Amino acid sequence: MENLNENGNVQKNFCANCGSELNPNAQFCGNCGAPVQKAEVQQPANVQPTYNQTNTNNNFTNNIPPEYQPISMWGYFGYELLFSIPCVGFILLLVFSFGGTKNQNLRNFARSYFCYMILVAVLAFIFILIFGGIGAFTGSMYSNLY
Ligand SMILES: [Zn+2]
């Protein structure tokens, strides 16, 4: 039997004490009788670092760069309140939407809120047109009656 090292070559062991060649499975040196410690000597130096799984889970949000830090539920709620302030909120919305913040989550949230506000404004405009039109129509009818 031959011991193979990582490269697939025949591995030759030498006595740590006297330096003579050893049999692959020898427990003791045939020359001087010193015990062979090949198991400890042949261990690879670069062992994969072991890390604690629960520890990495706890530190997960701390390892995220600031651009991708998640916003908490209350964070979203706070920004929503902020954006719903007339004029000031809309300015903040524009600032966050167009590069005012490094945080991707906040930017996307601001953009989605911006689209939502446009949608609401368009719907409100349509409602005003419809009901305003009806109001004008009925108003003209009433004015014709009198
Ligand atoms: Zn020896």
Explain what the structure shows.
It is a single chain. The chain is mostly helical and 146 residues long. The chain folds into two domains: 39 residues, no CATH class; 76 residues. A hairpin with a 6-residue loop joins strand 1 and strand 2. Helix 4 crosses helix 6 and helix 5 crosses helix 6. The protein is rod-shaped and about 130 Å long. The model has no long low-confidence stretch (mean pLDDT 78). The structure holds zinc ion. The site of zinc ion has 8 residues, from loops. Zinc ion (ZN) binds next to loops.
In short:
The protein has about 150 residues and is an all-alpha fold. It has helices at about 40, 55-60, 60-65, 75-85, 90-95, 105-145; strands at about 15, 20.
- What is the domain total for the residues? 2
How would you classify the quaternary structure?
A: single chain
What ligand species are in this complex?
A: zinc ion
What is the helix/strand order? EEHHHHHH
Strand content bin: under 5%
Number of helices: 6
Q: Mean of the pLDDT scores? A: 78
For the biggest sheet, the summary is: 2 strands, antiparallel
Identify low-pLDDT runs. Answer: none
**Shape, per Cα inertia axes:** rod-shaped
Q: Classify the helix fraction into a percent range.
A: 40-55%
- If strands are numbered along the chain, what order do they take across the biggest sheet? 1-2
The SS-based structural class is mainly alpha
Total beta strand runs: 2
Radius of gyration: 38 Å
- What is the straight-line distance between the termini? 118 Å
